Hints:
8-stranded antiparallel β-sheet; lectin
Amino acid sequence: MGSYNFFIQSICPSIFIVFLLGYPDLIESAAKKGINTGPVIDVTKHLSFLDFSSNTTPRVNNDVKLLGSAIISEENGCVQIPNHSPTIDLRHLAGRAIYSSPIRLFDPLTETPASFETTFSFQFETTSTESSLNNRSSDFGGGGDGGHGLTFILVPDEFTVGRPGPWLGMLNDACDEDYKAVGVEFDSYHNPEFGDPNDNHVGINLGSIVSTTTINASDVGIHLKDGSIHRAWITYDGLRRYIDVRLGSDGKDSTSKLVFSGPLDIAPFLNEYMFVGFSASTGNHTQVHNVFSWNFTSMSRASLRIPSTETCESKIIVHGDEHGESSIKKAPSSFLIFLAVVVLLLAVLLNLYLNRKRRERKPEDFVLPEKKQRPRPPNKPRRFTIAEIFTATRSFSELQKLGSDTRGVTYKANMLNGCNVAVKRFSTQFFNSHGLDKRRVAKEIKAISRIRHPNLVPIRGWCFDHRETIVVYDYLPNSGLDKWVFGVGVLPWTRRFKVAKDVAEALSYLHSKQLAHKNMKTSSVFLDVSFRAVLGDFGFVLDSSDSTRFESAVSQTADVFYFGVFVLELVAGRERRCDIDGVRSDLLDLAWAMHEREEKVKVVDRRMGSLVNSEQAVRILEIGLLCTLNENKGRPTMEEVVEFLSLEKLVPELPPSRPIALFPYSSTTGLCSGYSCAPFK
């Protein structure tokens, strides 16, 4: 070991010095060169799945990533969206099945999309649920039998799942105009508001669920929902920007029929690397989308680059002369060799001298090295610098903005390690107008960041630099619940009921840790990739008029109250302040009025149609109203609310009429007492 250390410490540095002294001209020439493009090559990627059974394709579980309600059926050897199980409600589900690694589909140097061709066999299997849904409400204004269709997709990430129903699992409300996606849909449902010609069509979608081109499949004799196995061929020429889409039956003697052929520029909707695969969805009407086989081949042009000086370009490249002969390296001069030998000898002598000194040193002279600090776990919350936040949010660019409220603005940010986060930047005006102590806020942010629960958005860290107060959360691509409940689509009752339970469990856990949320509202609830509800956007602070002595008690009871109002919004599909029959009204007033008239069922969102469990919805409404009672008049704790929702405890009977005063909410002013919030909108 001593000889090895001697070699490392003395001989290796000397060899490196000889190298530097012997080849200064090569290093100097390499430093002067920029990055130059080399020869153009073709980058080819080929995927082949004869079926999706692990017996014939052992790596299928590693190569295919499933999101949402997509599964691999070993029995049928296919991808299924959604899971065809008798125990699962197939309505309003969405899923994706994509190749697990990104594929190069765009050359940023020449701005040329890749050429690709794909073929896959698929089948739309009508479920038994379909026959039981006759005369029920249609999906988002459409009509006709059958569920929604299947889409071949090119998407920028492997996390997002689109909305069910007409969105085909391709896009959701969180996918803004910067979300690049390309799809070829095979749709079996008629949504005229999206420009669908009928319930049997093919569409080409570029960054939007509204197709840029739609083709009636009936014109070529193809009926997508006839129960047979179809085969699709999609060919795209990246140089010509031209696409061909063909359809036919799946068999040895099948002939393809041209569905569409024409120019199509997908370059603006591509990143250099994209994920390829399939997405599908169901609505009020259901069907199972089966993909039995899939082949995909892409070819993109790329220019090789001559390595930079950092990659030792001068040491690995020998430039040919005009006639193709290699130039001869310049030999080091005799003086340089002599100098290198002298330096080597000096290094050896110095090393021998130091070794002798070490041996003569007394044992007590040795000092043990300091114990190294253990590395911080990668997901442990930490303090971010303002420079990191500025870089990740592109200097708080408007393009990165996700939303805002009276407390501040939330931005989407991309950290240096590649992960996406949500950054809540509290406004200075908010702190000044409420007389808030930032040290107190920082203390609570750190306290909440230490807890973990499946239904709480994890806090990644914080920043308290340059008079800034910033909280960094995990980013959830499916956005806030308000966009799903009050948006264009209709969230089914089964999802809403699950959301209420998820949020109740999150609040109950917070209260068990002597903490509170302090900002309970619909926009503070988010949906993760599996559509589980998680609670985020914590309030952290109370108004300055409130004493810290009563903060825990006041904020927890206020959490319960606002959970009750949240439940009313969830069941009614309306915001707290909303237009009812053309009149600006308060949802809490309406709910109590309907209770007094024993007509609570009229509060339930009519858009869900007859698919809603009315008895269950009324029970949830009663729990919501119970939460808005005065504390001394029967307002439950969140632990009791969880028991009510889990059917473990009977719901107490509500008073026959509305109490005179509801703490801490006033429907006339929309202001909060003991709770830091803005007037309801």
